[in-house]
């Protein structure tokens, strides 16, 4: 069975299905294969985490879904199927600047970026910035949109929302600004919310609260979420499913419990060992993955993880296939023998 078939066979109710996605950049130095054959399903009402070290292609994957990469210099191939009932549309066949794509981008798929400082406009009130999204995508009046903005601020945990709706971004702390970004992301009631490292710029002490809030809202709004993070520890809190990405490929995908309790790919295992566990790492160094991510200009031939893998593998110069560990759990490693319990 091909990776595409394995992913396609998953019986979850699909919202988004990515097939053989390749996003390459043509640069003066050569071709950067940032995303190089990704297969991934985001089911309805589900939170999927995309994890991997910096440079693995996570943001490029999300920008490819959103149609935010100009071609050229990007060259995008494959399929990104967005399901509306029984019908699906291949987003890659739409004009990224056309009405249909804008419609989907505004009403159905929304994105929260990493840095709330640069995403909020300092000269407009918080309320105006939430209302702008509501007014653009609904038929509500200004007064109704403001009520909805207040309601959303309340939902994301801003105290005194009726008063604070008229304040400016500089009057909000970093954590509160990120909560506002979540409110804006949810303002049009999207079916898919993409959050690219939503807590990376935020103080660790308040990260957990924000993640918990996102999980609660994802369930309450019945939206799906693609949560991107370089930190597997972060996603444990919010993800139903995890896709582990390495050098432009998904190397393991499965339910969060399977990924944490029965990881199969050496890279997933290494990422898990590198999570510091509160109270358990005293006197014990948590492990750091050896070596560095290879340069995307010089991707190793065969298994891409070979330069950092501690295992002896006679087949490393051949590209490993996707292997089904069990339905819904797949890994891309020659060493998987199927004998794990
Ligand atoms: N516009 C671009 N032009 C050329 N290379 C890019 C561009 N955007 C990203 N890349 C490269 O693609 C690779 C993946 O980047 P990215 O998706 O941002 O990684 P991350 O997993 O950290 O989000 C990196 O090597 C990055 O340098
Ligand atoms: Mg990124």
UniProtKB/TrEMBL annotation:
ABC transporter domain location, by residue? Answer: 16-272
Q: One GO CC annotation, please?
A: plasma membrane
Keywords from UniProt, A to Z, are:
ATP-binding, Cell inner membrane, Cell membrane, Membrane, Nucleotide-binding, Translocase, Transport
The alphabetized list of GO BP terms reads: peptide transport
Q: Does the keyword Nucleotide-binding apply?
A: yes
Entry annotated with the keyword Ribonucleoprotein: no
Origin species, per record, is Orenia metallireducens
According to UniProt, the name of this protein is Peptide/nickel transport system ATP-binding protein
Report the subcellular localization.
Answer: Cell membrane
Q: Which GO molecular function terms does the record list? A: ATP binding; ATP hydrolysis activity
The record's SMART domains line, in alphabetical order, gives:
AAA
Membership in a protein family: Belongs to the ABC transporter superfamily.
Domain of life of the source: Bacteria
Q: How does it sit in the membrane?
A: Peripheral membrane protein
Q: Which Pfam families match?
A: ABC_tran, oligo_HPY
User: NCBIfam families recorded for this chain?
Assistant: oligo_HPY (TIGR01727)
